[in-house]
Write a structure and sequence with these properties.
alpha/beta, three-stranded antiparallel sheet, about 40% helix, seven-stranded parallel sheet, Rossmann fold
């Protein structure tokens, strides 16, 4: 019981964004409230992208998704993420926007401060966890493909505006060294556990990890560091990647694989629905891990049986808590 209490008090910092991070923290909230989330600010598509361009606000979508994932009342969580449908010409302005994005935008326009807007929105929905943008600058994401082309914009990468058989070689952000809130760094430097993933590797995970101040704090902090491998490879972006390829790609961007523990799904018996036939379960591959840094690989059934390209929140959280 004492050991369980200690685990509940551990400070967990989650780095990333998108659906993967929401799934992660939705499960973790049942074990601890001592969670900090740091999300990418590279989003330039959908509701967030439209609001970003129209009102010069930091993209609110991932911040709202994190708030919704941490809300205790599921009805309120659904309300926050409710997306207005496009039914007629008259409602075109609101069509496609998430209600939570609109709430945060209203508070931002009222206060002219994204952090005040974030705090008010969290307070409205009873969320106490720390949630931060990864940078105070609106970053722009670009990539170089394996055949040397440059692709600009998170949306362009997410919608795969580059052709097969060529994939991505490296991503970069502009500005290269964006401003980071000191509270983000302080949380990292006092973390007991730092987690990256699950989520889109090149458009959610790496855009946070390659920010110089975040990378520096991540490498400096001596604590348990967990990399959660995705269930399946995303078509085009990480097509045919094995675990070894993810490690190599991270070393390409960070010069090192900074995580001591990897959680990988062990259940590949569930057939991926035909609709998602381009997704393939990730294999371990032939690992060539540097002897100076040999991460522990934990194989667990963490798959969402109803949607088998995603993790199950409860199973993933349990796997994490059993290994910290």
């Amino acid at each position: 019981m004492a050991n369980e209490k200690i685990k509940r008090d551990l400070k967990i910092v989650c780095l990333g964004g998108g659906i993967g991070t929401s799934v992660l923290i939705h499960g973790l909230k049942k074990y601890t409230s001592n969670i900090t989330v740091v999300t990418s600010m590279a989003d330039d598509g959908g509701s967030s992208g439209r609001l970003r361009k129209a009102y010069n606000i930091m993209p609110p979508g991932d911040l709202i998704s994190c708030i919704a994932a941490l809300v205790q009342n599921e009805d309120l969580a659904s309300l926050l993420t409710y997306r207005f449908p496009g039914l007629s010409r008259e409602n075109k302005a609101i069509d496609g926007h998430k209600l939570g994005n609109i709430i945060m935008l209203a508070e931002f326009l009222r206060t002219k401060d994204i952090y005040k807007a974030l705090e008010v929105t969290k307070r409205m929905f009873g969320v106490k966890a720390d949630i931060f943008p990864a940078s105070d600058d609106r970053v722009h994401l670009s990539a170089v493909t394996k055949d040397g082309r440059r692709v600009h914009g998170e949306t362009a990468l997410d919608l795969v505006r580059y052709a097969e058989p060529y994939g991505l070689r490296k991503i970069y952000i502009t500005p290269k060294n964006p401003k980071v809130n000191q509270k983000v760094i302080d949380n990292l430097l006092h973390a007991d556990v730092i987690i990256s993933g699950p989520g889109d590797f090149y458009t959610n995970q790496l855009p946070v990890l390659i920010i110089p101040r975040i990378r520096k704090a991540l490498l400096e902090r001596q604590c348990r560091k967990i990399f959660i491998l995705n269930i399946a490879n995303k078509p085009f972006e990480t097509k045919d990647f094995s675990l070894e390829d993810f490690l190599s790609a991270m070393r390409e961007h960070l010069d090192v694989f900074p995580f001591d523990t990897i959680i990988k799904n062990s259940n590949t018996s569930i057939k991926i629905p035909r609709k998602y036939k381009r997704y393939k379960y990730i294999e371990i591959g032939t690992l060539a891990i540097n002897k100076q840094h040999n991460p522990k690989i934990i194989l667990k059934d963490v798959i969402n049986k109803d949607f088998p390209i995603y993790h199950d929140s409860d199973k993933l959280a349990k796997a994490i808590m059993e290994n910290i």
